[in-house]
Amino acid sequence: MTQQITPELRKWIVEQAQAGHSAESVLQSMKDSGWEEEVAIDAMETTLRGHLDEQAVAQGQPPAVPVPEPDVGDSSLYLDAGDRQVAVL
Q: pLDDT digit string (tens) for 25-44?
């Protein structure tokens, strides 16, 4: 059975986020209600990303765009902080 992401579900996800509930607690609530984890995660990600884009446009800001990851391939594992070496995670 395919689970459908409805407008009501999207509204509920936004309401939970606005009320300050953590992503983990919202996901757990969805799973407890019978949602498959992958579908629930996708619903949360797409809903919240879309909501944030709508809010940005409403405030006159451009929507978010993807940016490249920094290239750390040739980077050192430690930085010299003068009196000590600091591990880079």
A: 999 999 999 999 999 999 99
Structural domain that includes position 51: 7-58
The Cα 63–Cα 69 span in angstroms is 19
Q: Is the pLDDT of residue 75 over 70?
A: yes
The rounded distance, in Å, linking the Cα atoms of 36 and 55 is 28
Distance in angstroms (rounded) separating the CA atoms of residues 50 and 55: 9
Q: Which residue has the tokens 């490249």?
A: 68
Helices (H), 19-73: 23-32, 37-58
Residue 32 within a domain: yes
**Is 51's pLDDT higher than 90?**
yes
